[in-house]
Amino acid sequence: MSHASSLGSRSVPQPENDPSAAWPDFSATTRPGAWEPDILGEGFSYTTLPLGADAEGELCATLVRHRLPAPQSAHVRPTATSRLGAALERWWPRPVSASPARATDAPGTSGFVLAVHGWSDYFYNAELARYWTDRGYAFYALDLRRYGRSLRPHHLNPGFTASLGEYDEDLAAALDMIRSLEGADATGICVAHSTGGLVASLWVNRHPDAFQALILNSPWLEMQGSYLVRYAAQGVVEPIARRRPRAKLHLPELDNYWRSMSRQAQGSWDLHPLWRPAVAFPVTAGWITAVMAGHREVSRGLDIKVPVLVLTSKTSHLGTNFDESMLHHDSVLEVQVVRDRSLRLGSEVANTLIAGAMHDVFASQPEPRAAAYAAIDRWGSGYLPGLAARADAARS
Q1: Is 364 in contact with 354 (CB distance < 8 Å)?
Q2: Predicted TM-score of the model (pTM)
Q3: Residue 269, beta-bridge partner list
Q4: Which of 109, 112, 107, 106 is nearest to 187 (CA)?
Q5: pLDDT tens readout for residues 123-152
Q6: Terminal Cα distance for the chain, rounded
Q7: Counting CB atoms within 10 angstroms of each CB, which of 90, 118, 167, 258 has the fewest?
Q8: Measuring CA to CA, how many Å separate 206 from each of 126, 188, 196, 221, 297?
Q9: Residue 139 CB-density burial (10 A; 0-12 exposed, 13-18 middle, 19+ buried)
């Protein structure tokens, strides 16, 4: 199967014994309310959320769900050495994905989790889903319009938006579907990564009753460097965005982050070559202007009413060339800038620094992954009723 499409002129690498070669380029649109089997395997399904159309054609978001019981998916293949495995055992008595809870002994569902991905990304982390379902939460993940399962052949600018507020429709449609299944009063937790963390923070600020807790995984809350870099960039990009929002900016094309994640390079994860390409989607003037507008809102200060947990790597390592240290640092964002800016999200914000983590702490090596999950258990024992007991049950 060829992965060439109208999504861009760059070729997509297809190494030998790449399981993604058997995946469809594009997800089929489901019938209204119907759930179809997902590429993550048994226990995972998806449904299409129609969002009308724009000048390019059909728009939709896609909701993925995980249901118990489900055996371990082969989608992720951790590559822990015996040393890392022993360290993981110290942090976490049994790896999260090693033994999914059985339907007969799973704790009762106490609410739901909605995961939101970052830039040039989609939901692929079966282990994250199992962490939450093992603790009695119904798990859902949202592929936003023009991303992942929501991409269509006619989308010439994957990931494009001229306003982060456009995703209000995606989130509202997802929550309507989830609450129709889980109940209008079900406790909702949002787990959001990178640009998705910015989108979710702005959404929760505008919709204070949408969720009862917010967990941010390396949220992109400010430009690298500082707000001064953002102001300088705005002066260059915004005039272009007003005239040609879909104009592509000529930026360095780096595959460092993909190499730290993909099993076809130095990482541990099977990634769809169109939905999470080696080189990120082309950056458009309209998209980066929308992101900077979100950064401005955060810098002025939000008033999020629910408790917020921010997880980041302890350190950053930015560079134009890949090196092995990028497996143990955030190679995308300056984490100190993120942590500083996170304090403007609301009045109840906790920061946890995960030593050895990458930009996506839940895609890191086994030891920092386990530390991140343990941090949620500790934090959640105070803010999410019953999580501590469910964590103990999941490990037993």
Answers
A1: yes
A2: 0.85
A3: 76, 262
A4: 112
A5: 999 999 999 999 999 999 999 999 999 999
A6: 43
A7: 90
A8: 30, 16, 15, 16, 12
A9: buried
